Amino acid sequence: MPDSWRGDNVEQIRKRVLEQLDMTREHEEEEVLAVIDEEICRAARERVIPLNWRKELRMQVFHSLRKLDVLQELLNEDDITEIMVNGADHIFYEKKGEILSWDKCFSSREKLEDIIQQMVGNHNRMVNEAEPIADTRLADGSRVNVVLPPVALEGPVISIRKFPEHPILMEQMTESGSISRECAEFLKKLVEAGYNIFISGGTGSGKTTFLNALSEFIPKSERVITIEDSAELQIQGIANLVRLETRTAGAEGTLAITVRDLIRTALRMRPNRIIVGEIRGGECLDMLQAMNTGHDGSLSTGHANSCQDMISRMETMVLMGMELPLTAIRAQIAAGVDILVHLGRLRDRSRRVLSIVEVAGVEQGNIILNPLYEFVEMGEKNGKITGSWQKKGELIHQGKLYRAGMEGTGAGL
Fold first, then answer.
1. Residues 298-313 pLDDT 10s
2. Is the pTM of this model over 0.85?
3. How many domains does the chain have?
């Protein structure tokens, strides 16, 4: 269907459908589609509409009424992982690691703004000129970030990170080459034994996906509390699971509830483990204190370019929460975090576990890292990077393994 024909006709039919519907009650999807079909037939009597256009026109009108307008088609495609809206006229998406431009757009800026309000309103969030930035999620769990003018100079901006309908398991990761079976089995035992694990990586490296995969190894009898800005985690098989989500301050006077607030509250809820979706600021101190007060096996993620860089970022984030001597901060990190797992996205757009490192302790005021596994590139084949995970050292602190009844004397266990 040509762009020149699509926009105006979709809007005209949409308005006619709205006139036909009784807006004082809820309508079933079949009822709405029946009215749309009637209006398309009416439009076809006025102007010829080829049959192959009618199906597309039908779904576009329906999506504009009941879904997320032109974005719905992209959301329905499983292969698309990211959707980027730069104003009403420019939409991009990521598919199989490649960013592409879409040939469709919103009929108007007003329509785009309506969709934004629909997104944030469904989860009691608010975004306007006074508060032009908001994070929320869609019904399918996709993460949404919205930025409005005057902060966004070219019009409203939406960034949507999609997640698979079913979480990716560690078995699938080993089959796809994201991690070796030896490394996966090693991490499985560490999670079962209650090692505190921190996952680092850049944007789009797969931190949340990997955290989900690790969580499948948590013993099913434990009580787990998850804490997130926007709920994304898909923890499976845990019956005693509590999911908490932050809240922004509302215009009606409701106070903001931060990650720090939720971590402190979680400590009073008798958790075995606490999982924080991502650490970004002063809440790093609260997370470390939780790890140091009997909540073994806690998990979290953070943005960093390497394991060493993650340690430096954690030091900075703790200082954002409280002024403490650097030696005290490093002691907290070394006592709280047992293992760092660093993920990366390689030049062939594949996501890999690049290194697994043990936080060995503090010597002369510096945190000592003990490399356990590292991904080593061997070359390229058919455009794909080849390599293997090489064992670099032995696990030093094995006390939790022994207390969990697991025997082993090295990284491979």
1. 999 999 999 999 999 9
2. no
3. 3
